[in-house]
Specification:
By secondary structure, the protein is of the alpha+beta class. It has one domain: LytTr DNA-binding domain (OB fold (Dihydrolipoamide Acetyltransferase, E2P), Beta Barrel). 30% of the residues lie in helices and 37% in strands. A hairpin with a 4-residue loop joins strand 8 and strand 9.
Length: 135
């Protein structure tokens, strides 16, 4: 197998691994279990994070963005800004010159200048090899 085939095979296995994997969100006095692929993006607010889901729900969690960045997979999520971690499959378009992305639901998020090059490489690599995960 060549390196492209190996990468494609690895990403397909990796994608199927995460398509049914859940994450536990400690919310208020309970725990909410959601599929990782249901997360659109995560926005930090000091030592808290807002987790935004595809169905419109939003959870305020007492965890830092770094903790979620370490926990979530690099092929599915990208750190685009000090305050944002985004699900790559939720991106509809990327305005490279304008330093922003647009999600399929119309929300625009900023891309930090220092993270733009790495994000763009990760974004193009992921979607050259994987079909979109968005439903």
């Amino acid at each position: 197998m060549n390196s492209i085939s190996n990468s494609t095979h690895f990403l397909q296995i990796h994608r199927s691994k995460f398509s049914n994997q859940k994450i536990i969100l400690p919310f208020m006095n309970r725990f909410v279990s959601v599929f990782i692929t249901e997360i659109l993006y995560i926005r930090s607010d000091v030592n808290y994070c807002y987790v935004y889901l595809r169905d419109g729900r939003k959870f305020l969690i007492a965890k830092t963005l770094k903790e979620y960045n370490d926990q979530l997979d690099a092929f599915l999520f990208a750190r685009i800004h000090k305050s944002y971690l985004v699900n790559l499959s939720a991106i509809e378009s990327c305005n490279y010159a304008g330093y922003e992305i647009r999600l399929y639901n119309g929300i625009c998020l900023p891309i930090a200048r220092r993270k733009r090059k790495v994000f763009f490489q990760q974004y193009t690599q992921a979607f050259a090899l994987l079909p979109r995960l968005a439903s």
